Write a sequence for this structure.
């Protein structure tokens, strides 16, 4: 009985550590995207939240509507890429957890 409990405790600790690792990896996501004309660079985190914006001198050549379009498109691309990275991490985590589950708990 002690061996079974020890094995269970060890598995739970491994899974908990893996969950913490996932949280750290997701918190570390940062994506920088620059517009094709180089006018705008946007950086977002793993939630797609804007963390930084950098404008080059090129923005002075843009109309307000062009500037808005470039800014929104660039930040949107960065957010999309960040969410994709986050999704990849979660998918890998879920696969790893499913593979580590005993057959009895998965219903096999």
């Amino acid at each position: 009985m002690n061996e079974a409990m020890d094995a269970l405790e060890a598995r739970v600790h491994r899974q908990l550590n893996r969950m913490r690792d996932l949280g750290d990896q997701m918190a570390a996501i940062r994506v920088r995207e620059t517009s094709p004309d180089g006018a705008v660079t946007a950086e977002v985190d793993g939630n797609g939240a804007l963390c930084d914006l950098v404008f080059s001198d090129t923005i002075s050549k843009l109309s307000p509507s062009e500037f808005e379009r470039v800014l929104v498109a660039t930040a949107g691309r960065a957010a999309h890429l960040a969410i994709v990275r986050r999704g990849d991490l979660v998918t890998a985590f879920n696969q790893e957890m499913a593979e580590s589950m005993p057959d009895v708990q998965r219903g096999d």
Observations:
- The first strand starts at residue 30 and ends at 34.
- Residues 32 and 43 are 4 Å apart (CA to CA).
- The mean pLDDT is 91.
- The chain has one domain: 2-106.
